[in-house]
């Protein structure tokens, strides 16, 4: 079974982020007033709009397929300067420069599957923060009842129309390991033609380590970062027991 992130075209079609996240990170970047580092930048969903706004952005991602797609999109959208795309690992990068804002959008911090990996990434981030610089990231809030409803079941996540008249269906089969706080997702993309016939089916797999809010706060502080703001959505609603998303903005201690 392949890594889901080899299917950059399908990813781009189906992964729209969390409502309001592009606008939120753009506002943070403008307020930061300097260079921005986008970790796990993917196909440039957030990095490209920032570059279009005149912000100098460096994007890092592990996947060459995602980066190739990002480069293609940037060219198509007229971004010729201000965007640097690099293949790299958020656990071990060393760019020799600092940034006013470092961001990890769309829950990508959860791809770090062990505490040691999370610690390595946060140490790298701390090293690359300019004086007064900020780290912004978001993660989903684990809900026990949600885990029970989804465990070892196939769920239709969405249908996405194609210009040809067909559509793409995205299915997930999720298995949870609560001892290690892991969720293993087998994702299936089905592409149909205008008659509804399946013409392609591809399977991919990814694993996330979910993290509880208090755990995240402690992890950040252990690595020289303090949370200065936190929200329950990208409209900056207060974070509370009803929140399904946690957005934090941090500074160096």
Task: Write a structural description.
It is a single chain. The chain is an alpha/beta fold. Helix content is 27%, strand content 36%. β7 and β8 form a beta hairpin. The longest helix has 14 residues, at 115-128.
Keywords:
253 residues; alpha/beta; seven-stranded mixed beta sheet; five-stranded mixed beta sheet; 7 helices; 12 strands
In short:
The chain has 253 residues and is an alpha/beta fold.
Number of strands: 12
Strands ordered across the widest β-sheet: 4-3-2-5-6-12-11
**Rg, Cα atoms, Å:** 18 Å
Q: How far do the termini sit from each other? A: 43 Å
Q: What's the average pLDDT?
A: 96
Question: What does the largest sheet look like?
Answer: 7 strands, mixed
Structural class: alpha/beta
What is the tally of helical segments? 7
Question: Helix and strand layout, with pairings?
Answer:
Layout lengths: L1 E2 L4 H7 L6 H12 L3 E4 L7 H6 L4 E5 L2 H13 L6 E5 L11 E6 L10 H14 E12 L3 H7 L2 E9 L5 E11 L4 E11 L5 E12 L3 H10 L2 E7 L13 E8 L1
Parallel strand pairs: 1-10, 2-3, 2-5, 3-4, 5-6
Antiparallel strand pairs: 6-12, 7-8, 8-9, 9-10, 11-12
